[in-house]
Amino acid sequence: MLILRLKRCERALAGGRLEEAMQLLLPADARAHRQGQALLDRLVGALVERGRGHLADGRLGPAEADWHAGASLAGNTPVVAQLRASIDQVAADRQRAADERRRAKGAVEAFVRQGQFTLAHDMAAAGAGGAAAGVGALVADVAVNRAASARLADDVATALAQNDWETAVDRIAATRSPSGDEPRVRQLKREVAGRVADEAGRLIDAGRLDEAASVLRRAAALGPGLAEIDSLRRGLDQCRIAWQSVRAAQFAHAREVLARLAVLFPGARWIGTACAELGRACEAIQAVRGGTLGMLDAGDATIAFPATAAALAQVGGAPIGGIRPVTSPAILAPPQAPPRSSARRFLLHVDGAGSYLVLQGSRFEVGPVSASRPADLPLVVAAGSPTLTFSRCDDDYFLSSVAPVPVNDRAATGKLLATGDRIAVGPRGRIEFRRPNAASGTAVLRISGARLPWGGVREVLLMDREIVLGASAAAHVRVGECPAPVILQAAADGGLVCRGEETVVIDGRACGRCGVVGEGARVAVGAVSFVIRRE
After folding, report:
1. Using CA atoms, how far apart are residues 362 and 150, in angstroms rounded to an integer?
2. Is the pTM of this model over 0.85?
3. β-strand 363-368 against 377-379: which pairing, if any?
4. SS3 state at 126
5. For 348-357, how does the pLDDT look when each residue is reduced to its tens digit (9 = 90+)?
6. Do 32 and 6 form a contact (C-beta atoms < 8 A)?
């Protein structure tokens, strides 16, 4: 049988069937035979020779396979090692050529982004891309980008000539050309921004702030770095802060903000009118505080005069016959329960993610747990720490405080919050504000340096309409192994509804793609599971 296998191996070698010959020589008895050793040498030589042929034709993969077969049969012999060195040299040459093509292509693209199409064309035509096909593709790309840039500039210029800044903004927003940094395009963007700023400024002067905000939102497609647009956005943010101060009855602060805005918008006559009205409101409040009622602001809060039966009846108790009125403060001023929290709250326990405190509402107070008036979010911080108010108006959040608090290391009594803002509460407490999902009004507060009365809770969700649980960065609660987002939505009756792309299972009962979540119910949607506990 061995002799027959060796003869078959010899015929396979003669016919160029090297893989068949290798399989016949794999058994140890074949390689131990003298004729088998000779056939092994011939097979290794044939593999090396075929590998060199593959290498000469540029087929690196088959050459690598032949080297591996020869090395497994004969080890690192000189001919096998020489083939390995040749393969490594070809691979290094290819990598070096690819790096050169990538650098050259990067240089061409950089010229295109800068609008220097002539230099980009010359570099591409000079063979910067390497092969002829690559050079042609680069030259064609440069021509396409040049034509797209010229068409964009012509369309925007035509729209501006017709005083149609909306079409100009839409045209710029729809363009995905890499030549956005071309000087002519940048100049057109500045011209469009000037038209947008004129329109928004006219609306602000006329007191139509909502329409001005809509105009500036459309101008976001022009990109950052436009000073006129940014100045108007900051002005509108200050208008929102002034309105929040008015809603909080902080008329003096609102008047200060509007006085600064009068410098930014000198043509807005409504600012002067509003300042005058706020001045009268401040004077009225000051007059009330300085009048008779203001006498109750100092000294003992208990009214020290004899109680009468009529007075007791007004307090709520009926006079009892035979009992004389007394002057006990406990009777005259019965203790009142502190006002309840204005925001609804519950705990969300998510398996694998942690516990979260959820506040529902549009206005939230954050303050020390020892304050006389309980806050929606009590923190274990110094007793003298000020109470902060987070207000949501549309999709914006505003921070207000009676006393200045450090916001991003700068003292302020009010601010339009943005993602990443850091607010100091007491000497060590810090609150980081985040809006993970721009399409949702729900915000996340990350608490550090201060403890909450609920153990294990480090993040607070200010819930608007929904809470997104998922693995993406746009989720309010990050949960690994969650390919599709899970939505926890507020219902009209004050309850909660869970929605998901997979079947919603509540307490072991399948509810389809949507189910009502009750307190204490175990909810599972795919790899996500959670429980809600009401306070």
Report:
1. 49
2. no
3. parallel
4. helix
5. 999 888 889 9
6. no
